[in-house]
Amino acid sequence: MSSPTLYANQRIRIKPNICTLIKRKLRGPGRILAQKNTEISPHDVLGNFKLTLGFTKVNLARELNVLPIDVPKFLQKAVGQTIYKGELVASKKGLFNKSQIIAPTDGIFQQLDEKTGEATFKLLPREVSLTSGVFGVVEDVDHEKGEVTIKTMMTEVFGIYGTGYEKEGFIHVIAGPADLVSKDNITEQYRGQILVAGSLILEATIKKAMSSAISGIVCGGLNMNDYLAMAGTLNPSKKPLSDIGISIIGTEGFGVIPMGDDIYELLKRYEGKFAIINGNMGRVMLPSDDPNSILVCRKVGLPPYNDIFEKPALTISEVKTGSKVRLITAPFMGSQGIISEIDGNPTRLESGISTYLITVTTKNKKIRTPYTNVEVVI
């Protein structure tokens, strides 16, 4: 008996080797060095700028074991002075020991709160070079805005939900695709990086990542309440461009859902490499590491750069044997496999509904499910 003609949603999860435009921006006052129409490599410097690192605080009263009002007696540096890493800020001699507070970094001793004994140090700006991070061609230079538009080859990865403005960093895989990631997995060593973080992250982990200045997190599932607190709504058409200081993408949906092997294995291959993440757009951009991609981009004409980007819309595709599909309902939500069989006749389910069942062969098992429980993925 011939198989029936069935249809399901089709979702694009990965678009390999797409020639596109990206923008690289100075994150502080500085100047652009790049010139229009020149070819660039990942380590080429596009410009230099001064990066303001913010503040750091030290409770001198607690460290010296004195009352807050007595802290000024032990200061070696005055409020308003510039201090340098390793210099002595405060010192107290005891009967058997000596307490010393050493400056952890360069900065200005900006304030001392006499009620708490807490000192505030404004970190000194440092000169930073903006590197391209990609092979490509400089399409445009805006010296006034400190921006460089580059035509380059990228592989795009699309998640289902996300939030946060565009950020950049190097990919670091800190968990397996099915692992739960706790706040203890987030450390200062990942500052400014993009983390691949297993099947679920919760509020405490997100807050730890924010305080550690992580650029972005890609995970399988998100807690719905956490997501709503960050993004405000589930409706993509009404969703504002939200940002809490970090860009976060859930590739599979809500709840504890292992990241799909297709996306996980791709991100794993990019371990330690430069990437761009935009949570609001649900997109991770992975630059090509092939120098010859410049030649391809030279031949491609593109419309002007547009800040507004929309994820590929769902389309309709025929469900056929050999199709790669992803299950979209429990208990196997997020599992991926190949359709190995389609029933020739409909089956009546316990709910009373009659539908066609298909067999999806995954890496570990065969799953019999209604064809309406899958989406075709490419």
- Measured between the Cα atoms of the first and last residue, the distance is 29 Å
Strand content: 35-45%
**Mean pLDDT, as a whole number?**
90
- Strand count, sense and closure of the main sheet? 12 strands, mixed
General form: globular
How many helical stretches? 5
**Number of domain units:** 4
> Percentage of helical residues?
under 10%
- C-alpha-based Rg, rounded: 26 Å
The helix/strand class is: mainly beta
Please give the CATH class of the largest domain.
Alpha Beta
From the coordinates shown, what is the CATH architecture of the largest domain?
Answer: 3-Layer(bba) Sandwich
User: How many β-strands, per DSSP?
Assistant: 30
CATH topology of the largest domain: Glucose Oxidase, domain 1
Oligomeric form of this entry? single chain
Which segments are poorly predicted (pLDDT under 50) over 5 or more consecutive residues? none
Folded structure, characterized:
By secondary structure, the protein is mostly beta strands. It folds into 4 domains: 13-51 and 128-159 and 287-308, no CATH class; 55-124, OB fold (Dihydrolipoamide Acetyltransferase, E2P), CATH 2.40.50; 160-281, 3-Layer(bba) Sandwich (Glucose Oxidase, domain 1); 320-377, SH3 type barrels, CATH 2.30.30. Helices cover 10% and strands 43% of the residues. The strands form 6 sheets. Strands 2, 4, 13, 14, 15, 16, 17, 18, 19, 20, 21 and 22 form a 12-stranded mixed beta sheet that branches. Strands 23-1-30-24-25-28-29 form a 7-stranded mixed beta sheet, with no helix packed on it. It has a 4-stranded antiparallel beta sheet with strand order 6-11-10-7. A hairpin with a 3-residue loop joins strand 28 and strand 29. The longest helix has 9 residues, at 203-211. It is globular. The mean pLDDT is 90.
